[in-house]
Amino acid sequence: QVQLVESGGGLVQPGGSLRLSCAASGRIFSISSMGWYRQAPGKQRELVAPITSGAGTYYADSVTGRFTIYRGDAKNTVYLQMTSLKPEDTAVYYCNGLKYGKNYWGEGTLVTVSS
Fold first, then answer.
1. pLDDT tens-digit profile of 54-67?
2. Sign of torsion over alpha carbons 50, 56, 62, 65
3. Do 38 and 18 form a contact (C-beta atoms < 8 A)?
4. Is residue 17's pLDDT more than 80?
5. Which residues contact 65 (CB under 8 A, 6 or more apart)?
């Protein structure tokens, strides 16, 4: 089993920044990728940014140039640096881990962008 715990959400004004953290524990060997999804009220969960075990990254068009995903030194932690936040970035952000084709999820952390 893999456990994922997110932190770092909160209320921020438009144009502000936040950094989300995701710590993986348990049987974390052979996790092929970790990443972030988000779900806004009334919308489906969408992929924001994954990072592979080889440090390959991908960004949704809506966050390209504003968000950066990277791993911590311990490799079991993934961060999402969010800048130039917009009200439409408001959502619950979920950490995801993929291992042998199975998805693991954290409980989510709420990001609210509002003045």
1. 889 999 999 999 99
2. positive
3. no
4. yes
5. none
